[in-house]
Amino acid sequence: MKNMIIKESSSQVVFKLMSAIVLLGVVLILMACSNKPAEDSHLKHAEKEHEQQHSHKEHADHDQHDDMHALEATQVMPKGYTVNFAVSNHPLFLLSEAVTKGTNTTVKKLLNTGDIGHHGSLSPSDIKMVNDSKYVVWFGKNLESNLSETLVNGNNTVTILNEASINTLQRRDEKMRLIANSTDPHIWLDPQNAKIIVNKLAKLHSEVNPEYAEQYKANARKFAEDLDELVAKQKTKVGEHNKYWSSHDAFQYFEKSLGIELVGTLTTDHEVPVKASQILWLKNNRPYKVMCLITQNKAKVGVINKLAPITNTVLREDMSGNTSFIDAWKNESQKMIDCVNNSQ
C-alpha cells in the first residue's frame, strides 16, 4: 500500500512537471507573437532611415556634381574673349612681363621664341587678334620685315624704333666699317633702351588696364634699378683682353655697356656663308693669339680649324631660352665676358 502511494505521487510530479513545461512553451510562443509586430516595426523604421540616408547621399552627390560643373563653367573664358595687348617677339615679351609682374594681365606674343628678324609668320587667327587688339607693339620693319604687311599701317601698332628717345647705332660690315644709312636693330640689348621700352610699355598697359597703373609704374621703376645695378656689376668683370670676333654684328649694344670691342665678323649676316678672303683677313688682323668668337649657333668645324686657336661661345641676341629680361641680360653678358676673358 505504501509503495502504491509512492508510485502515485511520482506520477503526479511528472504530470505537473510536464504541464509546467507545456505552459512555459505556450507562454513563450505567446510572448514571441506579441513581440513580432514591434520587431517588424523596428526593422521597417531602420530600413526607412537607411533609405532616407541613401537618398540624402544621392542628393548630396548630385549637388556636388552640379557644383563641380558650375565651377568648371566659371573657369571657361567668356565667349568672344580676346587678348587686347600683343607684342611681336620674345625680347619685347620679356620686357612686357617685367612691367606686368604681379598683375592679372594677358599679353599675346605673335612670333615663337627664337623667331626674330626675318623669321616666323602670322596665322589667320593671329591676324584677327592683331586687328582686334588695343595695342600691338613691335620693333619695326627694319628688324621684322616679315610682319610689315600686317603691322606697318595698323592704327593700333606701336613701333619702338620710331621712339625719338631710343638710342640707335649704325651697322658695321665684316671689317668694322660703318654701313651708310643703316640701323642696327638689336636695340633691346642696350640697357638704356630697355628702360625706355619698359616705360613705354608701362604707359600702354596702363591705358588698357588702368586699375594696375600704379603697379606697372612701380615695376618699371624696379626694373630700371635692377638693370642699372646688374650692368655696373658685369662691367667690372671684364679683364685686360676685351676684343672679340662674331659671326655678324649683333652685340654692339652690349659692347657699349660692358667696355668690350668687336674687331671683325665672319659675314654681314649670320645666314650668309663666310668667304675665304674674310677668314684670311681675320687671321691677319687678330689682336690676340687665342681669340673669342661669338656665334648664334655653334661654329662649323672648318671655320674653327681655320681660325684656331679660338674660344667659340654661342650667344642668342633674341634672348631665347630665358624667361626674365634681367636674367637674360645677365646670362648673355656673362657668356660674352667669359669668352673675352679667355683670350690671350
In short:
52% of the residues lie in helices and 9% in strands.
Structural class: alpha/beta
Question: What is the string of helix and strand elements?
Answer: HEHEHEHEHHEHEHEHEH
CATH topology of the domain at 85-164 and 183-233: Rossmann fold
Average pLDDT level: 80
Largest sheet: 4 strands, parallel
| DSSP E strands, number | 8
Strand order of the largest sheet: 2-1-3-4
Corresponding CATH architecture of the domain at 85-164 and 183-233: 3-Layer(aba) Sandwich
The CATH class label of the domain at 85-164 and 183-233 is Alpha Beta
The gyration radius over C-alpha positions equals 43 Å
- What distance separates the N and C termini? 148 Å
Annotate the secondary structure layout.
Elements (H helix, E strand, L loop, with lengths): L1 H74 L9 E3 L2 H11 L7 E2 L14 H9 L2 E4 L9 H4 L5 E3 L31 H18 L4 H23 L7 E4 L5 H7 L2 E5 L10 H9 L6 E5 L5 H7 L2 E5 L10 H17 L3
Parallel strand pairs: 1-2, 1-3, 3-4, 5-6, 5-7, 7-8
Task: Provide an overview of this structure.
The chain has helices at 2-75, 90-100, 124-132, 148-151, 191-208, 213-235, 252-258, 276-284, 301-307, 325-341; strands spanning 85-87, 108-109, 135-138, 157-159, 243-246, 261-265, 291-295, 310-314. Among the domains are: 85-164 and 183-233, Rossmann fold, CATH 3.40.50; 239-341, Rossmann fold (3-Layer(aba) Sandwich). With 344 residues, the protein is of the alpha/beta class. Helices cover 52% and strands 9% of the residues. It has ten helices and eight strands. Residues 1-8 and 33-82 have low confidence and may be disordered. The protein is globular, with a radius of gyration of 43 Å. The termini are far apart. Helix 7 links the parallel strand 5 (243-246) and strand 6. 27% of the residues are buried. It has a four-stranded parallel β-sheet with strand order 2-1-3-4, with helices on one face.
